[in-house]
Write a structure and sequence with these properties.
It is built from eleven helices and ten strands. Bound molecules: D-glutamic acid. D-glutamic acid binds next to helix 3.
Length: about 270
Amino acid sequence: MTDRRPIGVFDSGIGGLTVVKAIRDRLPNESILYLGDTARVPYGTKSKETVVRYSVNAAEALLSRGVKMLVIACNTASASALPEVIDHAGGVPVIGVVEGGVAAALKATDGRVGVIGTESTVRSGAYEKGIDAGRKGITVVSRPCPLFVGLAEEGWSDNEVALATAHRYLDGLTGQIDTLVLGCTHYPVLKPVIAKVMGPGVKLIDSGEETAQVVERRLAEYGLATTADRAGRVECLVTDSPERSLALARRLLGAEVAIDSCSLIDISPFAG
Ligand code: DGL
């Protein structure tokens, strides 16, 4: 059996493409339909109710286009809206990114974990709960770094503004932790400056890779994997400015992942 339907992936903006890249590296023959809610980014400063509504909108838009699996490539939405998205998915498997981030942190740490994310993710305590459920006795310190989202959306990943912002947010964590979870899918875009500030002694965790492994396992479990022998399509839908998103997406995914299309979608009819 082969299932050529695309995997649906969504985020508030372009950050979730860091997860698309990881899925693509692992499962090159799967097609991906990505939705970036660029008209309403950021989600991380909004209330739980709003994040739930936006996430359900995005999920329903992808489900209406026949995706075989949903990946919530947004920590904010995964931390606040996973049960609601599952409720609306009508049996289509749903994977959030917090699960992968927690698993990767547990593998990497010697006992002192830092988590950086949006205000909403930090407020939810999702990483603390997940890490505590996985292993007792690990110290977790969390810090919101909201400006990193704007820098990533702007494509300012490795300049003096990004570096100064990283120092401002992260200097207090240096020497306190052995592992830092990039608990927002936008943050891997800023990995070079984050690594520079934290120094070589701190392992940086990008939940994308671990999430891609979870996707591979669940596709096999549910009999949903494709057996196609050539590269799948990568199509993007955005709620604002496709041209701007396409330029950023190309930069982010690199030359090895071709984007087949990037078009505008209105997701407001999919009321949450
Ligand atoms: N990329 C998202 C996350 O992983 C959300 C960023 C935002 O919209 O604030 O949390």
